[in-house]
Specification:
The termini are far apart. The longest helix is centred in the N-terminal third of the chain and has 27 residues. Helix content is 49%, strand content 0%. The chain has a domain of 91 residues. With 153 residues, it is mainly α.
């Protein structure tokens, strides 16, 4: 007589593809953590790209087009990255950067200090070398249904 052995049922494991909202991304599993120099180089490269974009937008505006909102957005992004570099690369504190920006208006230091802190945090969340970085999947754009040529509603 042969005995039949029952095998345990297979376990179904769900894998979470993207982090939940308000959850800090964990990059400890990466084999190549970003050094401070790599993070600075990444932000400097992004800053160069933004400055080139700003120059193109200014040329576009000079030709008579209205791009004020986009110009303002790019200028703010440049300012955020410059503040981040002053803190990370040059070793200044939030207060030092705020005092530098306030100039002759010492009353503005506290509000500028808060702005510099928010700018620093925004840049930290936006680059992949940071522990605050959150993976946000790009939305998939589908122009037609099954490549048949008919646009989706």
């Amino acid at each position: 007589m042969s005995k039949t052995t029952q095998q345990p049922p297979e376990k179904h494991v769900e894998i979470e593809i993207e982090p939940k909202r308000n959850q800090r991304a964990d990059h400890s599993e990466l084999n190549h953590p970003w050094s401070k120099e790599d993070r600075i180089t990444y932000i400097e490269g992004r800053l160069t790209e933004l400055r080139m974009t700003l120059a193109h937008l200014q040329q576009f505006e000079a030709s008579g087009h209205s791009v004020e909102a986009e110009l303002h957005r790019v200028e703010r992004e440049i300012e955020k990255r410059e503040n981040w570099l002053l803190i990370e690369r040059d070793g200044l504190t939030w207060g030092d950067v705020a005092k530098r920006k306030a100039g002759e208006q010492p009353r503005r230091v506290q509000s500028l200090k808060s702005q510099v802190r928010r700018d620093w945090e925004a840049v930290e969340r936006s680059h992949p070398g940071s522990g605050l970085y959150k993976l946000t999947p790009e939305p998939i754009r589908v122009d037609c249904c099954l490549n048949c040529g008919f646009p989706l509603p």
